[in-house]
Amino acid sequence: MENKQDLLKKIIENKVLVSKENEQIISSAQTESLWLFDFRRIFLDPYHIDLIAEIFWDTYKDKRPFQVCGLEVAAIPLVTAIVMKSVQKGKPVNGFFIRKSRKKDGLMRMFEGTVTDENIIIVDDLINSGKSVMRQLAAIDAIGKKVSDVFTIMHFRELEYYYFLKERDITLHSIFPITTFNIDFKKYTPKKFLGDIFKTEWYFKSNKPSYFYVVQKSTPAFDLEKIYFGSDSGNFWALNQKDGSVAWKYKVGFHPKGKSIFSAPAIHKNTVFFGSYDGNVYALDTQTGVKKWVFMEADWVGSSPALAPDIKTLFIGLEFGLINKRGGIVALDLETGEKKWEHITSQYTHCSPAYFAPEKIVVIGSNDSTVYAYSAKGGKLLWKLQTHGEIKASFAFDEKRKTVIFGSFDGRLYIVDIKTGKIIHTHQAEFGIYSTPTVYKDNVYFTSLDKRLYSINLKTNALNWFFEAKGRIFSSPTVINEKLYIGSNDGRLYELDPGTGEELGFLQVSERITNKVVYNEENKKFFLLTFANEVYCLTRNKE
To answer: CA 506, CA 532: separation in Å to the nearest integer?
Structure first.
């Protein structure tokens, strides 16, 4: 009688393995692939999924107690089959699944089902690079549970590659290596796993995060001792960088739709500045959290402040609830909060202004799809540029070429003469841009909601390369110690070579990363904020 593994092998060869001769197969890089293993073709067939569940129980029949889980969508029928088979075997086990991203409404869960205290076996159809397993491990770590095993039908790489599982005392059981099947497969040479580039020094989570708003939130600012950031709960936090303990907190007013502090703070001397959706702009003492002044003329403030210490001014975007008065920009005195000048726009202004000190120019965008450039001292409108999409983030400056660079929801990156507003170059992405570009060594780096990070040569305006993440990108790229970092909705902070776009390493966390990572050169610490109001204090592992 044919054994179960041999039978499953024939099923995979006949029903799961797809070749380009039979169907068109497009890779994530938009190139044609030669073959693909599509296990979804058999996962809802009762006989095939029952066979896989039998093989699972042959492997783990003597290892209870445990529970099984997997990542949506492919693992859901596999988890279900294993749980149902456990009842037939008289050995019932618990099952649950992990969402690729947390629900934004209802109970807003990452896990569906009940998670118990037993050790967890992660199940999946296959393991290649291990990225999906890493995502699940990060989510499970966050709730304090332990994974003992990973069970897959197939593994693509040599077992030595998955040493990151062995280091965690996790056993990988895979039924087949990919070399079992007669395909044109280039053997993968094991190398150091790309993960594990950071060590978490401490972790902090603010209470009552809002999972509904998947946008940039309050990117931390820091001085020599503390970091500062706002949260969905209405608390503005000052944490000690040494250990993450709370130095002080300040509570802002209420917003009826659950928005609170999305504004990224800015620091000047011993004062921290930020806006809030209670309609106020705040200036607090960095040592005590005591209020120095508050500007109260807006209905909502989601914008982040831009400081111009040379002219003692703060610029920030404002939002209003009036029909003909929806948004605008205000210039405030840094020391007193007194209004110097103001301009109103017809639509909301979520965008954060940017100040170009050499020319004393401040620029800001609006939901009216327009970028405005003003004289920073007097507020005179110097030029405006109409795009075809809302302007949500902020601006980068190329001082060498005297240009301002920004993205629009029309999917274009704009490179514009800072003095005249004349368009020098645009580059079209596939979706809108909700992040701020960064300029480094004659290149500009920008992201799009198409999941890509792009590099453009500022000398030639040609595309150098693009890198594709596994989730949408709201965060802004940043270069730290000659490495390029970008966060994604897949919960991953990527480290890239800025010259080539090659992935050098990553950090996997459980929640979406919508803000850029910041770095304190003095103590060599990275601070990473997730959209769930978590802060990770990280140090770079030695290479």
So the answer is: 19
Mean pLDDT computed over 433-460: 97
Choosing among 2.60.40.10, 1.10.1740.10, 2.130.10.10, 1.10.260.40, the CATH entry for 198-540 is 2.130.10.10
CA 457 to chain centre: 25
CB distance 55 to 175 below 8 Å: yes
Integer Cα distance of 321 and 323 in angstroms: 7
Check if the beta carbon of residue 355 is closer than 8 Å to that of residue 315. Answer: yes
CB atoms closer than 10 angstroms to residue 203: 14
- The pTM for the full model equals 0.88
Same fold, 4-180 and 198-540: no
Residue 278: pLDDT over 90: yes
- Report the percentage of the chain scoring pLDDT > 70: 96
C-alpha 525/C-alpha 200 separation (Å) is 10
Which residues, including other chains, have CB under 8 Å from residue 543's CB and lie 6 or more apart?
none
Give the separation between CA 312 and CA 307, rounded to whole angstroms: 8
CA-to-CA distance for 63 and 149, rounded, in angstroms? 11
* Residue 163: predicted pLDDT: 86
Classify 538 as helix, strand or coil. Answer: strand
CA-to-CA distance for 416 and 398, rounded, in angstroms? 10
Q: Is the dihedral of CA 523, 447, 417, 319 positive or negative?
A: negative
Domain boundaries, the chain: 4-180, 198-540
- Closest by CA position to 521, among listed 312, 159, 222, 307: 222
Contacts of 446 (CB under 8 A, 6+ apart): 405, 407, 413, 429, 433, 435, 437, 438, 453, 454, 456, 477
Report pLDDT digits (tens) over 365-413.
Answer: 999 999 999 999 999 999 999 999 999 999 999 999 999 999 999 999 9
In CATH terms, is domain 4-180 a member of 3.20.20.150? no
With CA atoms as reference, report the closest residue to 342 among 350, 332, 352: 332
The string of DSSP codes covering 16-62 is IEEETTTS--B-TTS-B-SEEE-THHHHT-HHHHHHHHHHHHHHHTT
Query: Which pairs count as long-range contacts for 9-14, CB under 8 Å and 24+ apart, including other chains?
Result: 9/176, 9/180, 9/181, 11/42, 11/48, 11/51, 12/37, 12/153, 12/154, 12/176, 12/181, 13/181
Q: Dump pLDDT digits (tens) for 193-236.
A: 677 789 999 999 999 999 889 999 999 999 999 999 999 999 99
Q: Token pair 């480290």 is at which residue?
A: 495
Rounded to whole angstroms, how far apart are CA atoms 126 and 274?
47
Structure token digits, residue 370: 């327009």
Whose CA is closest to 340, among 313, 359, 320? Answer: 313
Place of tokens 């020391």: 335
- Give, in degrees to the nearest 5, the angle at Cα 43 between 38 and 44: 125
Query: Residue 161: its pLDDT value, please?
Result: 87
Which two tokens mark 102?
């947390």
Q: What is the pLDDT of residue 107?
A: 80
